[in-house]
Amino acid sequence: MPGNPDDTLRDILKTTRVVAVVGVSPNPVRPSFYVARYLGLKGYRVIPVNPGHAGQEILGQRVYGSLAEIPKDARVDMVDIFRRSEAVPGIVEEALAELPDLRTVWMQIGVEHAEAAAKAEAAGLRVVQNRCPKIEYQRLFGELRMGGFATGVISSKL
Predict the structure, then answer these.
(1) Mean pLDDT, range 112-123, rounded to an integer
(2) Rg (CA), the chain
(3) What is the pLDDT of residue 156?
(4) Who contacts 103 (Cβ-Cβ below 8 Å, separation ≥6)?
(5) For residues 107 and 89, is the Cβ–Cβ distance under 8 A?
(6) Of the options 1.10.230.10, 1.10.10.60, 3.90.190.20, 3.40.50.720, the CATH number for the domain spanning 5-148
(7) Other beta carbons within 10 Å of 73
(8) For strand 57-58 and strand 61-62, is the pairing parallel, antiparallel, or unpaired?
(9) Is the pTM here over 0.85, yes or no?
(10) Average pLDDT along the chain
(11) Which of these, 86, 77, 73, 91, lies nearest to 22 by C-alpha position?
């Protein structure tokens, strides 16, 4: 990320509207589920992508088996990848071919792929690796509390 990384992340999170979450799980204790839920609560349209659950619903949205199956009028502008790093090149290839409005490829914590990132950047996309949009949103917009949790509980106990 050229320039100030926080400015870039802030801009991505402010301008993104539709997020395809690749690898999202219907299991509410999985990080992919609660990140997708959080993004939905923050006003993003979340499109679940998981071939193992295609045709089902997660968070009230139809699950697609691939990025290619998402209707073009969905106008996906960010792909959030919850898959192993070795799966990233194929996801980036498909995203570049199938998502004409795509502006950002985001790889979750622990997910990195230098060659795929370079390819996405060469195509004019912004790329974030090894970070979580939920954590970055909370950190950059004042929601992150001590310990990394936004509990909403105020306590005077030490």
Answers:
(1) 98
(2) 16
(3) 45
(4) 12, 15, 16, 77, 78, 125, 126
(5) no
(6) 3.40.50.720
(7) 6
(8) antiparallel
(9) yes
(10) 91
(11) 91
